[in-house]
Amino acid sequence: MADIYQCKNCEETIDASFGYCPHCGQKTADVLTVGVLFSNTIKNYFSIDGRFFKSFIPLMTKPGMLARRFVDGKRQLYLHPAQYYLFISIVFFFVFSFTIRKADNEVSKVLEKSFNNQVSLDTLRAKMDSGSIEAIDTAITAGPRISGTSINFQKELLDSLILSGAPQAEKLLAMGKEEYSGGFVTKVYVQFLKLYEKKGNGIINTLYDTIPIAMFFLLPLFALLLKLFYWSRGTFAHHIVFSFYYFTFLFTIFCLLTLANTFIVVPDWVNVLVLLSLIIYLILALHHFYESNWKGAFFKASFISLMYMLFVLPVAVVGIVFVSFLLY
Predict the structure, then answer these.
(1) Is residue 248 within 8 Å of residue 84, measured between CB atoms?
(2) SS3 assignment, position 14
(3) How many CB atoms lie within 10 A of CB 214?
(4) 287 with 294: CB under 8 angstroms?
(5) pLDDT tens digits for range 256-287
(6) pLDDT at residue 245 tops 90
(7) According to the 3-state scheme, what is the secondary structure of 151-199?
(8) Residues 60 and 249 sit within 8 Å (Cβ to Cβ)
(9) Dihedral of CA 71/75/79/85: which sign?
(10) Terminal-residue alpha carbon distance, the chain
């Protein structure tokens, strides 16, 4: 009689000679070590195995092929489109973060110079005396107010309040906020005050942190455009699969381009050619995935790209900037 073994995962009784549990698939002799722990973590989250490398070359050289094969049912030979997209996007944003730090420093310097354009804080500090607080309170009471939500304030007055450690409510009034403004309007004023006090330091980092979240909305919108042009060529899930692989390709190209610009000065004409290649790749991918004729693939790829760049991306950029401002 065969020896009996109880699976530690699902607790089902199985033959002890089995290498894997037929009920849940867990390895029967899975001894937990540090090496196994980290190996499983990498495999589970990033699937760095043969499928990754089997997927990379077709992704770069055969547009639309991976998406077509995945939809057709060949889903074990290649990396799952969502996993592939997640892994490449993490790599891209890691590489891009070094560029963002430099840009954040430059933007902070520009904003600080702009904020200090009228009166320097050092000058105000030298002018302040024991009667400053009383003068400030009088100025707030008699100072100008604004209508609506526009920001209009006297820089010298606001700087004086900041230096004197005045409460936030007084500083907001000095900026022109109505005393009984709604919650959203108050939030906008608070964020403007924070931006002013910090001289814009860190605003680009906040913007950078918002972009990955926005990408999860931009990708389905791209799939929606595909659905509009290829209404009868598959379900929305099929268009999502295509979008995952196409955005993975985009992130891969942008990652390589960012790395190249880090070490060398890439000529502008090379950057232009790379951007044009993205549209050419899309034409080829549409032709192979949707079995579209070349003429149809060309016009649809061109129109989809045009609509995406003229309407979707501008709205997304405005949304990203506004959300970044609110989260700053």
Answers:
(1) yes
(2) strand
(3) 15
(4) yes
(5) 888 888 788 878 888 888 888 999 999 999 99
(6) yes
(7) CCCCHHHHHHHHHHCCCHHHHHHHCCCCCCCCHHHHHHHHHHHHHHHCC
(8) yes
(9) positive
(10) 68
Q: Give pTM, 2 decimals.
A: 0.68
- What is the Cα–Cα distance from 56 to 236, expressed in whole angstroms? 24
CA pair distance 308, 315, nearest whole angstrom: 10
Please tell me the distance from the alpha carbon of residue 222 to that of residue 244, in angstroms, as a whole number.
Answer: 10
Determine the pLDDT at residue 215. 79
Q: How far apart are CA 48 and CA 226, in angstroms?
A: 30
Tell me the per-residue pLDDT of 9-63, one tens digit each, with 9 for 90 and over. 888 888 877 888 888 877 777 665 656 555 655 565 555 556 777 889 999 999 9
- Which residues, in sequence order, are CB contacts of 151 under 8 Å at separation 6+? 175, 176, 189, 192
Tell me the one-letter amino acid at 225: L
Kindly indicate the confidence band of residue 241, based on its pLDDT and cuts at 50, 70 and 90: very high
In total, the chain counts a number of residues equal to 328
> Residue 61's pLDDT is what?
92
Per-domain residue ranges of the chain:
4-49, 56-106+202-327, 119-181
Is residue 250 pLDDT above 90, yes or no?
yes
* Dist CA 154 CA 118 (whole Å): 10
Provide the 10 A C-beta neighbour count for residue 231. 8
Give the pLDDT mean for 218-240.
90
Give the distance, in angstroms, between the CA of residue 229 and the centroid of all CA atoms in the same chain: 26
* Residue labelled with tokens 């100072």: 143
Q: Pull the structure tokens for residue 6.
A: 């109880």
Backbone angles phi, psi at 171, to 5 degrees: -65, -35
Would you state the structure tokens that stand for residue 27, as one six-digit string?
Answer: 């390895």
CA distances from residue 52 to 22, 57, 239 in whole angstroms, order as listed: 27, 9, 22
Q: Which of 43-52, 177-186, 206-215, 293-302 has the lowest mean pLDDT?
A: 43-52
Angle at 46 between CA 41 and CA 48, to 5 degrees: 95
In percent, the amount of the chain with pLDDT more than 90 equals 19
- Residue 158: how many CB atoms within 10 A of its CB? 22
Q: What does the block give as tokens for 18?
A: 């089995």
